Amino acid sequence: MKIIPVTCAIIHFGDKILAVQRSETMKLPLKWEFAGGKIESGESEIACIKREIFEELNIHIEVKKRLTPATHQYPNFKIELIPFTAEFVSGELKLREHSSFILAKKEELINLDWAEADLPILKEYLAT
Ligand SMILES: Nc1nc2c([nH]c(=O)n2[C@H]2C[C@H](O)[C@@H](COP(=O)(O)OP(=O)(O)OP(=O)(O)O)O2)c(=O)[nH]1
């Protein structure tokens, strides 16, 4: 099965981190994730994450660091999730696709019901 490359961003707003909840009508309904999305053909990872964040959240970010990608097989599809840490730069946060968001302290993130692919990424991030 082909592997779909997906970027996501762990966005810092000061000492809080943004997590977003998928809506009931999306794949992986109501799971929590880091905002992002599929890389388009010919697009760089960095261009992808900046574009997705603006499309989904109406904000601009500064990308800081690439963490270790995680490959995950869901029942019907397989993704390579490529995570970046980032900082909020500007814009008014508006949810264009997700059902809700949380600005959480790092130690609170583990309590959310995450999409499975995010778990190794979260673990690496929490260890830093
Ligand atoms: N953006 C993002 N997607 C994630 C994360 N974890 C995770 O399993 N995914 C999955 C959910 C989706 O199947 C895929 C990302 O695709 P997307 O957000 O561009 O697409 P989508 O749900 O609208 O799916 P589709 O209808 O276009 O197929 O990766 C994450 O932390 N961030």
From TrEMBL:
Domain Nudix hydrolase: 1-126
Cofactor(s), names only, from the UniProt record: Mg(2+)
Pfam annotation, one family: NUDIX
Keyword Isomerase: no
Superkingdom: Bacteria
Catalytic activity: 8-oxo-GTP + H2O = 8-oxo-GMP + diphosphate + H(+); 8-oxo-dGTP + H2O = 8-oxo-dGMP + diphosphate + H(+)
Protein known as: 8-oxo-dGTP diphosphatase
Source species of the chain: Psychroserpens ponticola
